[in-house]
Design goal:
Largest sheet: 5 strands, antiparallel
Order of helices and strands: HHEEEEEEEEEE
Number of helices: 2
Helix content: under 10%
Shape: elongated
Structural class: mainly beta
Strand content: 35-45%
Mean pLDDT: 85
Length: 197
């Protein structure tokens, strides 16, 4: 995978300190009389009913898919829902038209516990040389419920590189990691920057 595991860690924000880890029950029972805390817990989805966690699946965060959306073209979705699905992605590159604007959208499920500070980090390489490192804060989430079976997060718009020198094959290593530095998923994938779709 990555030549340096440290490369796939999100960059630290100076002065930010990760709060104490709490269980789902601790969050639900904290200061029942505090109105601002009730609003905060509701914003995390802690007050919206029983979870739909799978008791046979110990994962806290399950990345279901990563989709590239661009104007004038059908979305391209990387299905990550089945265990092991990510192992074949490196050999199935998808095309990105040079100079096009696109958004990535992550679809995921949280179960069993509150997920704190989920981030997406990826490193793109061309011919073995790192050309970029991007990261996107996804946020903190409560376990999903029947009324909210999954979450989606649309990332900031990106511009594909353009020009003859930018065209070609690229590889990427992506990871979904939380505040506790727990990697929920890491996978290699590839894409080609082309003149046309």
């Amino acid at each position: 995978m990555a030549s340096n595991e440290h490369d796939l860690l999100p960059e630290e924000t100076e002065g930010f300190k990760v709060g104490e880890k709490k269980t789902l029950n601790e969050y639900q029972n904290m200061d029942a009389n505090d109105e601002s805390l009730k609003r905060y817990k509701a914003s995390l989805g802690l007050a919206s009913g029983p979870t739909n966690s799978d008791p046979n699946d110990p994962r806290v965060c399950i990345i279901l898919s990563l989709t590239m959306e661009t104007t004038g073209r059908d979305p391209v979705t990387i299905d990550l829902s089945a265990k092991g699905a990510e192992t074949t992605l490196k050999n199935k590159p998808f095309k990105i038209k040079e100079g096009s604007k696109f958004n990535m959208v992550a679809k995921f499920k949280v179960q069993h516990d509150v997920l704190s500070g989920l981030q997406y980090v990826h490193i793109v390489k061309r011919k073995g040389i790192k050309v970029s490192k991007d990261q996107e804060m996804i946020g903190s989430y409560a376990p999903n419920t029947e009324s909210t079976p999954f979450y989606t997060k649309r990332f900031a718009e990106e511009d594909a590189p353009s020009g003859m020198l930018a065209r070609g094959h690229y590889t990427a290593v992506s990871t979904f990691i939380d505040d506790d530095k727990h990697k929920h998923l890491e996978f290699e994938w590839s894409f080609d920057i082309t003149k046309d779709w």
